[in-house]
Specification:
alpha+beta; about 400 residues; 21 strands
Length: about 400
C-alpha cells in the first residue's frame, strides 16, 4: 500500500504531526491505545503545557535548536486548541497547566484533529525492515497476523525515548537514525529519582521538605522527597537532568535563608529547649534526628554561640551528597540525549541528509524540565514537521 506519510508512534508528537501533515497520513503504534503517556501523566490529568515555556527550559547540545519550533507553535497556541474543545483546565504551581477532568480529554481532542485531517491510525502494529530507495521509504507492518508492505514519501519517527519501558519504550527512533547515518547523543535517563548504595535515607522514607537542589550549573527550588532508595521529589527530578554519574548534589534545606535569625531569637525565648527540638520546628523531625550525629546537634539552644549557629545554618544550606546512580529508565519521566540536532533542520525537523525523514518529540536531543515542558516540545516539534510535510 502507498501513503504520503508514515508516522511511527501515536504519542503526543506523533498525533500532533498526523493532525497537521496533510492528506495520506498513516500513524502506527504497537500499543492498544494512542497517547498512553498522555493518559498517565499528571496523575491522570495531563500537565499539558507550561505558561512559562521558553527555550531556556530545555536541555540540548544545541541550546538554540528548539527556538524555531517553540517560537512558531507556542503554549498559547495549544491552550487555544484546548479552549476550542471546551476542555476545562487549571494552573498549579510554577505555571503548570492541568486538565480539570481527565487526560483522556486531550487524547480525544487529538484523535478528533486527526480525524478531521483524514489520518489513519493503526494500533497493535509492529514495524520492521525500513529502507529508502532515494525517493521513497518502505517498511513492513505486522498487524492482526498479516504483513503489510508500505511505501511512503515521508517517514516521521515519533517513537519516543527509552523511558518507562513497561509502556513499550524501545529506542526505535535511535536505531532508525543510525540506520540512515544520523549521529546520536548518548541517551540517559532524565527527570529521575537518585539512588544511594548505602541506603542512608531508608529511615527517612516518606519525609518531604522544601529545598534548593543543585547539580551541575542548575538549581531548583521545590520539594524533595526521601525514599527507601534515595532522593526524589520535584526539585531532585529537575536536578537529575543536570547530574552526571560520580558528581555531587548539593541540598539547601533552608532555601528561605532566614533560619539563623530565627534560631537567634529562639535562643532568647526558648533557651532551655534542646537544639533538636527547636530545629524540628523548622525542618521535619525525622530529618533533624537523622542529621543529629552528622551535624552534632547536641545541647540546648541556649548553649549555642553565634559562630556555632552560623556554622549549623551553613551546613544545612550546603549539605552535599554523592548519589550512586539513578533509578534508570524504569521510572525516568524522559530520556536525555537522542538524535543529534546538528543533523536536523530546526524549522522542519527533517534530516538534512535524507529528504523526507523526520524526527520529533522525545527521540530528539531536546529535553524539557518537569512541569509540562516536554509536552510542549511534542506539540511544537510535531506541528513543525506536520507543517513542513503539508507544504511540500
Amino acid at each position: 500500500m502507498y501513503v504520503e506519510t508514515l508516522i511511527i508512534g501515536a504519542g503526543a508528537a506523533g498525533m500532533m504531526c498526523a493532525a497537521h501533515a496533510g492528506p495520506g497520513v498513516l500513524l502506527v503504534d504497537h500499543a492498544k491505545a494512542p497517547g498512553e503517556k498522555i493518559r498517565i501523566s499528571g496523575g491522570g490529568r495531563c500537565n499539558f503545557t507550561n505558561l512559562h515555556a521558553s527555550p531556556q527550559n530545555f536541555i540540548s547540545q544545541n541550546k538554540h535548536f528548539c527556538k524555531s519550533a517553540l517560537g512558531r507553535y507556542t503554549q498559547w497556541d495549544f491552550i487555544d486548541l484546548i479552549d476550542q474543545y471546551g476542555i476545562a483546565w487549571h494552573e498549579k504551581t510554577l505555571g503548570q497547566l492541568f486538565c480539570d477532568n481527565t487526560a483522556k480529554d486531550v487524547i480525544a481532542m487529538l484523535r478528533s484533529e486527526m480525524d478531521k485531517a483524514g489520518a489513519q491510525l493503526w494500533l497493535q502494529t509492529s514495524v520492521e525492515n525500513f529502507a529508502h530507495d532515494g525517493s521513497h521509504f518502505t517498511a513492513t507492518l505486522q498487524r492482526e497476523g498479516h504483513a503489510h508492505q508500505v511505501k511512503a514519501r515521508n517517514l516521521v519517527m515519533a517513537s519516543g525515548g527509552k523511558s518507562i519501558p513497561k509502556m513499550g519504550a524501545t529506542g526505535l527512533g535511535y536505531h532508525i537514525a543510525q540506520q540512515f547515518g544520523l549521529p546520536i547523543i548518548t541517551p540517559r535517563p532524565g527527570l529521575v529519582p537518585l539512588t544511594f548504595s548505602d541506603e542512608r535515607f531508608k529511615p527517612l522514607a516518606g519525609v518531604a521538605t522544601p529545598a534548593r537542589v543543585s547539580a551541575g550549573a542548575a538549581s531548583f527550588d521545590e520539594a524533595i522527597l526521601f525514599t527507601h532508595r534515595g532522593l526524589s521529589g520535584p526539585a531532585v527530578l529537575q536536578a537529575s537532568s543536570y547530574w552526571q554519574e560520580g558528581e555531587t548534589v548539593s541540598l539547601n534545606l533552608v532555601p528561605q535563608g532566614d533560619l539563623l535569625s530565627k534560631l537567634r531569637h529562639q535562643r532568647q525565648s526558648d533557651g532551655r529547649k534542646a537544639l533538636t527540638t527547636v530545629l524540628s520546628q523548622h525542618l521535619p523531625g525525622r530529618l533533624v534526628e537523622h542529621l543529629g550525629t552528622e551535624l552534632k546537634l547536641d545541647g540546648n539552644i541556649a548553649d549555642q554561640s553565634d559562630a556555632r549557629l552560623t556554622q549549623l545554618c551553613d551546613n544545612l544550606a550546603q549539605w552535599t551528597v554523592t548519589p550512586a546512580g539513578s533509578e534508570g529508565y524504569r521510572t525516568a519521566e524522559v530520556t536525555l540525549g537522542g538524535v543529534d540536532t546538528d543533523a536536523l533542520s530546526s524549522k522542519t525537523m527533517g534530516a538534512k541528509a535524507v529528504p523526507g525523514l523526520y524526527f520529533i518529540g522525545e527521540c530528539v536531543d531536546v529535553t524539557g524540565w518537569l512541569g509540562g515542558y516536554n509536552f510542549q516540545w511534542a506539540w511544537s516539534s510535531g506541528w513543525a514537521a506536520g507543517q513542513a510535510i503539508a507544504n511540500q
